[in-house]
Amino acid sequence: MKIAVGITGATGVIYGIRLLEELRRHDVETHLILSEWAKKTVEIETDYSIKEIEGLAHCCYDNRNLCAAPASGSFRVSGMVIVPCSMKTLSALTHGYAETLIVRTADVMLKEKRRLILAPRETPLNPIHLENMLKLSRLGVTIMPPMPAFYHRPGKIEDLIDHFLARVLDQLDIENNLVQRWEGQE
Q: What Enzyme Commission number(s) appear in the record (predicted)?
């Protein structure tokens, strides 16, 4: 399996980093695209270096290079996850403005009818954000804001991150044991 991963400059870049770690653990070939703002956000929010993050992926691409392999529908990937997904990126995709490789790759997912998962990071959401998400959802895009769950009684931030990533991996049909599955109550 091959997955394209886009990381934009929205807060929550740790979700994208942890996704790369988990996909590597599951032997999934990853194709990473970091936006320029993602690189800045990595510096602000984490202790990771860009080189360390790029080392988690099988291939890395410059977000300005619209001639890179993921820009073409003939480049076969099973899907793409943009996590976190800035509202700028979501808006560009909604309106077909593929000025960056992240948006162009997502646009390819739409035209080729491949799985596309967006993890938008913004709150509160204004009507434009909501309309853009609705439009993309109606086109088959999975919209997954990283909202914390508490029924598994998280003890640390990593538990919240992993719970969300377990759901992303589920959407990609990748078996995982990041969290204990809900078995109901009597």
A: 2.5.1.129
